[in-house]
C-alpha cells in the first residue's frame, strides 16, 4: 500500500509539472505564432482595402476588418482560452451585422485614422515617463547599456517626439480625407458641402496605401539619420534591427520595460 501511494504521488507530481510547463510556455508559443503569422496577414490588408474601394463590394471591407481583428487578437487566440475566442466570435457577428447593413466599408475607412491616432497616443504617452518608447526599442535591439552611451538617451526622446508628431499629423490629414473626399467623403454622404475638393481615388489610395507607405519609408530614413547623428557609435545593421523589433514587438506592445535583449 505504501508503494502504491508513493507511485500515485509521483504520478500527480509529474502531471502537475507538465501543467506548469505548458502554462509557462503558452505565452512564448503565442508570441512566436504572432510573429510568424501576424505580418503575412497584415500584408493582405491593403489588398483587400483597395479591392473594396474599387469594386464597392462589401465582402472586401468585411474581410479586411476581420483580418485586422484577427491579427490584433492573435496572441490571445493562440493561447487556446475560451474567453478570447468567444470575444472574437462576438466581434465577428458584429462585423457581419455591420456588413449586412452596408456599414463595413465606412468602418474600414476609419481604420487608418484610428491606427495613426492610437500610435500617436502610444508614442506621446511614453514621453511622460522616464523611458520614452524609442528608448524601449533601443533596449530591445541593443541592450539597456546602450542608453548610457553619449547622446543616445536624448536622441531617443527626440525621435519619440518625431514619431508622435508625424503620426498625429497624419491622423489629422486622414480625417480631412475621410470627411472631404468628393463623393465618398462623410460630408458628401450626408449632403453637406465640403470646404475642399479631394478626388475619391487619391483619397482612397492615400488612406489605405500611402499612409502606411509613409510610415514604412520613415523608418529606414530615421535609421540613416541615426547613423549620421550618432556616428561616434557603432550601430547594428538595418536587417538585424528589423529582426530584433519583429522578435520583441509583442513585449513592446504590452509596455514591458524589462531588458529584452
Protein architecture, described:
- The chain is mostly helical.
- It folds into 2 domains: 1-102, no CATH class; 109-261, no CATH class.
- Helices cover 78% and strands 0% of the residues.
- The protein is built from 10 helices and no strands.
- It has helices at residues 2-43, 45-55, 59-77, 82-100, 104-126, 133-142, 152-180, 186-189, 200-229, 238-254.
- Helix 2 (45-55) runs antiparallel to helix 3 (59-77) and helix 5 packs antiparallel against helix 7.
- The longest helix is centred in the first third of the chain and has 42 residues, at 2-43.
- The protein is globular and about 55 Å long.
- The termini are far apart.
- Mean pLDDT is 77; it is low at 12-25 and 256-261.
What's the helix and strand layout?
Elements: H1 2-43, H2 45-55, H3 59-77, H4 82-100, H5 104-126, H6 133-142, H7 152-180, H8 186-189, H9 200-229, H10 238-254
Helix pairs in contact: 1-3, 1-10, 2-3, 2-9, 3-4, 3-5, 5-7, 6-7, 6-10, 7-9
Briefly say what this structure is.
Helix content is 78%, strand content 0%. It has helices at 2-43, 45-55, 59-77, 82-100, 104-126, 133-142, 152-180, 186-189, 200-229, 238-254.
Can you give keywords for this protein?
about 260 residues; mainly alpha; 2 domains; 10 helices; about 80% helix; disordered C terminus
Amino acid at each position: 500500500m505504501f508503494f502504491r501511494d508513493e507511485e500515485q504521488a509521483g504520478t500527480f507530481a509529474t502531471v502537475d509539472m507538465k501543467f506548469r510547463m505548458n502554462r509557462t510556455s503558452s505565452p512564448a508559443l503565442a508570441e512566436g505564432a504572432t510573429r510568424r503569422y501576424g505580418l503575412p496577414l497584415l500584408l493582405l490588408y491593403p489588398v483587400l482595402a483597395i479591392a473594396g474601394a474599387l469594386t464597392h463590394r462589401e465582402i472586401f471591407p468585411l474581410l479586411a476588418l476581420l483580418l485586422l481583428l484577427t491579427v490584433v487578437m492573435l496572441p490571445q487566440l493562440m493561447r487556446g482560452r475560451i474567453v478570447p475566442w468567444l470575444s472574437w466570435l462576438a466581434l465577428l457577428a458584429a462585423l457581419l451585422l455591420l456588413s449586412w447593413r452596408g456599414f463595413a466599408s465606412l468602418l474600414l475607412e476609419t481604420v487608418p485614422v484610428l491606427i495613426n491616432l492610437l500610435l500617436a497616443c502610444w508614442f506621446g504617452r511614453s514621453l511622460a515617463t522616464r523611458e520614452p518608447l524609442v528608448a524601449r526599442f533601443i533596449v530591445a535591439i541593443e541592450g539597456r547599456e546602450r542608453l548610457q552611451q553619449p547622446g543616445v538617451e536624448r536622441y531617443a526622446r527626440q525621435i519619440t517626439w518625431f514619431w508622435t508628431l508625424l503620426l498625429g499629423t497624419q491622423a489629422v490629414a486622414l480625417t480631412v480625407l475621410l470627411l472631404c473626399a468628393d463623393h465618398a467623403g462623410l460630408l458628401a454622404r450626408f449632403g453637406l458641402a465640403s470646404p475642399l475638393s479631394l478626388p475619391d481615388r487619391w483619397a482612397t489610395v492615400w488612406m489605405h496605401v500611402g499612409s502606411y507607405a509613409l510610415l514604412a519609408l520613415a523608418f529606414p530614413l530615421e535609421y540613416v539619420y541615426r547613423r549620421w547623428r550618432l556616428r561616434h557609435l557603432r550601430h547594428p545593421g538595418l536587417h538585424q534591427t528589423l529582426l530584433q523589433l519583429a522578435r520583441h514587438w509583442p513585449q513592446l506592445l504590452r509596455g514591458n520595460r524589462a531588458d529584452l535583449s
